[in-house]
Recover the amino acids of this structure.
């Protein structure tokens, strides 16, 4: 795991100025890789490599393009200098600046005979790119975002993994120049990018996050998950190399026992792959099913004693230490409870806000857990993120199909929308205004209805706050052949998980130099689980719970019956304390005094507004 940054330019005149820019970019993301750094300049007939060890120079055939590649290294696989980057291919025709991990690099190395003797996934990837080009991407299992400079073509390739686990930003401030980086702050440090796009405020308040291929800052772009970009100083091409829909199974239901057996085998395989490391690997252990399943699979994988971590916030109602400890005892892990006092967290909030790559109303929980685990001495940790999206663990998998049926008469033009909306506003549900909006103006597509269901604020509220209309919820036509559960799963994976959870997890873990791996977010696991279609949930509240209960090595009954949990921060408690004048929470107190927020503060104080919405 690392941080990458760079500039490529045609007809560059001031190489030293570009070096200074990339240096600023690299330094802005030094937290992503504090173990070592390097900057390689390819300009004219010279190659210059600057690093902590000094400067080394070589010659090259002069080309029309110049490239400056920067790298901050967090050493995880091959801790020697042989794994240092930017890395040059053996024949000198390619350069690689890589962020992420390729878990099956040994398999690729054996099957293709690539980089024999190398112990680095980056070295294997680079030689495969030189030999096979982008055709190698379908063979990779892992999380990654990388820049590949092809000297023969005089072209830069930017590539992002299938699901967008690792981020990659870019901009083209002039026709012959392109800059890229792991985080927007790096590009801004070099003078690229402008102010926040006003329309993104409305998008954020509607969705709670930005689209996975968009930045809030003018002039900056995000390479979409499963995409590659090619730039040769004249032409810029962006193309998709992976479609999440390719993991979907047939439109039929399979026995839950069949799905559960396939899932356990596939999860064990994914966990073994995600444990590949030359440094110790730990696990975030909450009181939920997903992290418990990760621990169970990791224990079945064998090897050294597994280290697990649970963060506890004393004095709050959110305490998962007891169920987490039971799971740790059952599977014999080296378990650590990390208590974090509210006063300590209050001092972290401002740092957490600064770490946000993009606006989000979530993610501080990952920031707190990551900081605690990083301070305990770990560099790599496994997370249960992705289990709900893959296995139908959210209420949306039940609620959206019901809402689709309930609103069918209104989409057909039958009367009654106004009455239904009025009744919905009086319904004993968490968000009666949202339900009323759905009844009054139901989306025409199933994905659009999912966006309405997942929305943070109603459209009228967003117009009142920003003066801007959010984009429509219906964005593409419906595919009637696609089952409803697949529609919901694709939305949860491509929009909520990719745009919010993965983006937040990278930003909030890497700010403390912690590599967060997500074994549920694995294309082979997804394919195995769904190759037979969905399964019945029977008496269980969710499809995920039914699957876990039917696993051959099921988790304990008392854990399976627990309500859905995960490490959550006591946001409501903090906001109430800030409103009461707790000066340790001044970073929250002062904005809450804004006149524009007064109606929402009042609604929160009266119990009519969810704390997450006020936080947003």
């Amino acid at each position: 795991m690392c941080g990458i940054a760079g500039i490529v330019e045609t007809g560059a005149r001031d190489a030293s100025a570009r070096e200074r820019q990339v240096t600023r970019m690299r330094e802005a993301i030094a937290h992503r890789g504090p173990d070592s750094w390097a900057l390689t300049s390819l300009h004219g007939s010279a190659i210059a490599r600057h690093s902590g060890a000094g400067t080394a120079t070589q010659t090259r055939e002069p080309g029309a393009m110049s490239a400056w590649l920067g790298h901050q290294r967090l050493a995880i696989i091959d801790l020697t200098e042989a794994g240092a980057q930017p890395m040059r291919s053996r024949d000198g025709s390619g350069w690689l600046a890589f962020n992420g991990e390729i878990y099956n690099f040994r398999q690729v190395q054996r099957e293709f005979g690539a980089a024999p003797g190398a112990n680095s996934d980056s070295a294997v990837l680079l030689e495969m790119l030189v030999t096979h080009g982008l055709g190698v991407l379908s063979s990779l299992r892992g999380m990654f975002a990388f820049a590949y400079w092809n000297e023969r073509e005089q072209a830069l390739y930017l590539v992002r993994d299938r699901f967008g686990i690792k981020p990659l930003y870019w901009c083209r401030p002039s026709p012959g120049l392109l800059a890229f980086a792991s985080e927007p702050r790096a590009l801004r440090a070099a003078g690229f990018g402008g102010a926040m796009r006003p329309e993104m405020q409305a998008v954020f308040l509607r969705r709670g996050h930005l689209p996975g291929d968009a930045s809030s800052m003018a002039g900056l772009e995000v390479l979409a998950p499963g995409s590659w970009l090619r730039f040769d100083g004249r032409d810029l091409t962006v193309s998709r190399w992976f479609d999440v829909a390719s993991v979907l199974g047939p439109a039929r239901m399979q026995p839950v026992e069949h799905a559960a057996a396939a899932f356990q085998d596939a999860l064990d395989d994914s966990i073994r792959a995600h444990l590949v490391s030359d440094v110790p690997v730990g696990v975030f252990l909450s009181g939920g099913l997903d992290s418990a399943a990760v621990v169970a699979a990791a224990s079945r994988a064998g090897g050294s004693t597994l280290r697990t971590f649970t963060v506890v916030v004393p004095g709050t109602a959110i305490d998962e230490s007891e169920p987490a400890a039971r799971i740790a005892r059952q599977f014999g892990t080296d378990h650590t409870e990390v208590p974090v006092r509210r006063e300590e967290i209050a001092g972290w909030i401002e740092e957490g806000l600064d770490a946000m790559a993009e606006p989000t109303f979530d993610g501080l929980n990952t920031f707190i857990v990551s900081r605690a685990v990083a301070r305990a001495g770990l560099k790599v940790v496994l997370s249960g993120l992705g289990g709900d999206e893959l296995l139908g663990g959210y209420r949306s998998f039940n609620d959206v199909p019901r809402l689709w049926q309930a609103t069918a008469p209104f989409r057909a033009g039958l009367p009654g929308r106004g009455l239904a909306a009025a009744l919905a506003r009086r319904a004993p549900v968490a968000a009666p205004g949202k339900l009323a909006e759905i009844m009054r103006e139901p989306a025409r597509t199933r994905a659009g209805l999912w966006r309405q269901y997942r929305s943070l604020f109603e459209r009228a509220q967003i117009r009142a706050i920003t003066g801007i209309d959010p984009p429509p919820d219906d964005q593409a036509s419906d595919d009637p052949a696609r089952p409803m559960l697949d529609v919901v799963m694709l939305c949860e994976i491509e929009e909520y998980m990719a745009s919010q959870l993965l983006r937040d997890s990278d930003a909030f873990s890497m700010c403390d130099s912690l590599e967060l791996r997500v074994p549920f977010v694995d294309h082979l696991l997804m394919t195995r689980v769904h190759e037979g279609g969905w399964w019945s949930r029977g008496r269980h509240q969710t499809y995920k719970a039914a699957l876990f209960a039917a696993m051959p090595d099921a988790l304990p009954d008392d854990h399976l019956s627990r309500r859905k949990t995960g490490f959550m921060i006591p946001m409501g408690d903090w906001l109430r304390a800030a409103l009461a004048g707790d000066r340790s929470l001044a970073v929250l107190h002062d904005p809450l005094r804004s006149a524009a927020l007064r109606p929402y503060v009042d609604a929160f104080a009266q119990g009519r507004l969810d704390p997450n919405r006020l936080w947003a």
In short: The two ends are 30 Å apart (CA to CA). The mean pLDDT is 90. The first strand starts at residue 2 and ends at 10. The CA atoms of residues 228 and 478 lie 27 Å apart.
